[in-house]
Structure formats: C-alpha cells, structure tokens
Write a structure and sequence with these properties.
The protein has about 280 residues and is mainly α. The protein is built from 16 helices and no strands.
Length: about 280
C-alpha cells in the first residue's frame, strides 16, 4: 500500500512539473495545495510558481519553508534572494545569494542573481564579473548574456553590449530593442531605424504591445529625423506625444509645426530585463 501511495505521489509531482513547464502556474499552486504531505521538491516547485506569478511574498514564504527543512538548499537560497531583491530587501537578498555561492560557487544561477544584485546597486564592474561567471558555467544562459549586455552598456562598453545583444536576440527579443537604442546612441541612425522597424512587426512585440510605448515612438522619431526623414519623424513624435511624452510634444511643436531647429536629443535609459 505504501508503494502504491508513493507511485501516486510521483505521478502527482510529474503532473505538477508538466503544468509548470506549460506555464500554468496557478494550476501548479492549486494542485500542490491539495497534497496531504508536501515534501521539499513540492514546496520548491510551488515557490517557483509563485515567483513566476510575481507573488513575491508568497514565494519567499515557500522558499523559507524549504530552508526550514533543508537549510543548505542552494536553489531555495538563491531564488529567495532573487525574490527579496524584487521586494527591495537588499540586505536579505545579499545574505541569501552569498550563502548560495558559498555552497555552490560554480552554480550559474547563483552567479546570475549576484550579478543582478550588483546591477541593481549600480556596481557594473562586479555585475559583469558575475554574469561572465554564470556564462562560463552555463554557456547557453540567455538571461545572463542579456544582462551582461545591459551591464556593459551601463558601464560604457557599447561595442561589448552590442555584441551581447546581437548574440542573444533570437532567444530574447527585448535585446533587439536595446540594440536599436545603442545604434541610436552611436549616431548610426539608419541602422537604428532598420532595427526599430523590425521591432515593431516582430511577433514578440506584436503580442506585447506595452513595449511599443511613448519611448519607442520617440526614439524611432529621432532615428527618422537624423536620417533626414522629417515627415516620418513628425508622425512618430506626434504618436509619442499622444501617449504622454512631453518632450515629444515640445519637439513636434517646434520642429513639425514651427520648423524650428529641435534641441539635442534626450538619452533614454536601457530597457532592463524582468527578473
């Protein structure tokens, strides 16, 4: 009888894991909460589901339950640290990630999260170091490569950032947007324009229209303007202004309505990956 119960439990966990892979996170939580007894892998999967849903307090609580049973569980430590970072609890986040790195110094995820902590604290030199560590231990780690590009961009290494974003663009389309921004900052206006136009029709951005916001139309307007396509630039400045961009409104009024020379372009921050 005990063997039969064990088989059922394994089947139940396999089902929950399959639902997680299918991104049915709410279903995972409901399934797990029906378990009479939850073991460490069950609690960890439930915590990860809350994490994916951005229910950070619930995720932290489940990771803590895992650590109450297995205090040296590196996965729970590093992921609770990531959750604490999302909650703005930097001290607790740093403590957890450091503990995870002591236990598993070559763990790519632990190094990635330490990179994120450094990035959030504007310590780009160390962020780059930990992202490189992460990629050394797991070469196929698109999130680490993306954030390496972001950290290099913030550290002034535009060429290195462009290389990283170019390499990860297929797996993480947001890198395409950042590559366009870098091209614009490098005064490669036609290249920036080409990439911005690809962004607009890319399947990812068609499905996530929130990224095609006032910043997008302002920046593409800049690329149009400095490429000598004033009419297209004015259309995008107007679109950005309609979306609430005050600078775009001023430029549209000065350049498109009164034909005055516009002021120097404003630099917009790089788009940061959601962690």
């Amino acid at each position: 009888m005990a063997m039969s119960s064990s088989i059922f439990a394994q089947d139940d966990f396999s089902l929950a894991h399959k639902m997680f892979e299918d991104e049915l996170y709410e279903a995972v939580i409901a399934h797990m909460e029906a378990f009479e007894v939850r073991k460490v892998p069950d609690l960890l999967l439930e915590a990860d589901a809350y994490h994916k849903l951005k229910s950070y307090e619930e995720a932290a609580e489940r990771y803590t339950q895992v650590l109450a049973r297995d205090e040296e569980n590196s996965i729970a430590l590093q992921r609770r640290g990531a959750v604490y970072l999302e909650l703005g609890q930097f001290g607790w986040a740093l403590q957890d990630i450091r503990a995870a790195l002591r236990l598993t110094p070559m763990d790519p995820e632990a190094n990635f999260y330490m990179g994120n902590i450094c990035y959030d604290q504007s310590d780009m030199r160390n962020a780059i170091k930990f992202y490189k560590n992460s990629l050394e231990f797991r070469p196929d780690y698109p999130e680490a490569l993306y954030m390496l590009g972001a950290a290099k961009a913030m550290n002034g290494d535009k060429n290195g950032a462009s290389d990283a974003f170019s390499d990860v663009m297929e797996k993480m389309p947001m890198a395409m947007y950042n590559l366009a921004v870098l091209s614009l900052e490098a005064n490669a206006y036609e290249q920036a324009l080409e990439i911005f136009n690809k962004v607009e029709v890319h399947d990812f951005f068609v499905q996530h229209q929130e990224f095609l916001d006032s910043d997008f139309f302002f920046l593409r307007a800049e690329a149009y303007y400095y490429s000598g396509e004033k009419q297209s630039a004015c259309l995008d400045y107007k679109h950005a202004a309609n979306l609430g961009d005050l600078e775009a409104s001023d430029i549209y009024d000065a350049v498109c309505l009164k034909s005055k020379k516009k002021s120097d372009r404003k630099k917009r921050e790089m788009i940061k990956i959601e962690l």
